[in-house]
Amino acid sequence: LASLSSCNYVTGSVVAKDHGITLGEWDVKVEGLLPTKVLVGREQGNPNWEKVLLDTDIWGGMGDDAMFQLFVRKVERRCPFSQLFKLSGVVYKSRWVNGPL
Questions:
Q1: Which long-range contacts (CB under 8 A, 24 or more apart) does 83-89 make?
Q2: SS3 33
Q3: How many Cα atoms occupy the beta-carbon half-sphere of 69 within 13 Å?
Q4: Are 78 and 15 in contact (CB under 8 A)?
Q5: Is the CA virtual torsion 81, 82, 88, 90 positive or negative?
Q6: Sign of the C-alpha dihedral computed for residues 23, 20, 80 and 64 taken in this order
Q7: Alpha-carbon distances, residue 60 vs 13, 27, 31, 93 (angstroms)
Q8: How far is it, in rounded angstroms, from Cα 19 to Cα 61?
Q9: InterPro entries in the record, alphabetically (predicted)?
Q10: What are the residue boundaries of the structural domains of the chain, listed by start?
Q11: What residues form DSSP beta bridges with 26?
Q12: Shortest CA distance to 49 belongs to which of 58, 60, 36?
């Protein structure tokens, strides 16, 4: 899960640079629900995460909500870890908040 937060930060920095956006602080929290019956037990099944939640607050130069939503879409599309979780069948949810720089 730490890779998910790091990947979004790095990808966000690349996307911001591509679009001339100035970014300030980031506050990223990631939570996941991992069933342990397969991982540490003897049960058969899928040991994958059941749910992953990404919560991101960014203070940056994106006062326009449309610009911020475009930024978020590009970050989530280009971040390999976001795509890995989304395409794996895990319940993946993200919340992004745009704060002033």
A1: 85/4, 85/49, 85/52, 88/48, 88/49, 89/48
A2: strand
A3: 3
A4: yes
A5: positive
A6: positive
A7: 11, 12, 24, 22
A8: 11
A9: KH_dom-like_a/b, OsmC/Ohr_fam, OsmC/Ohrsf
A10: 2-100
A11: 58
A12: 36
Q: What is the pTM of this model?
A: 0.88
Contacts of 91 (CB under 8 A, 6+ apart): 50, 51, 52
DSSP state of 82: H
The CATH T-level fold of domain 2-100 is: GMP Synthetase; Chain A, domain 3 (3.30.300)
Three-state secondary structure call for residue 57: strand
Encoded amino acid at 80, one letter = P
- How big is the chain, counted in residues? 101
Residue 16 pLDDT level (bands cut at 50, 70, 90) = very high
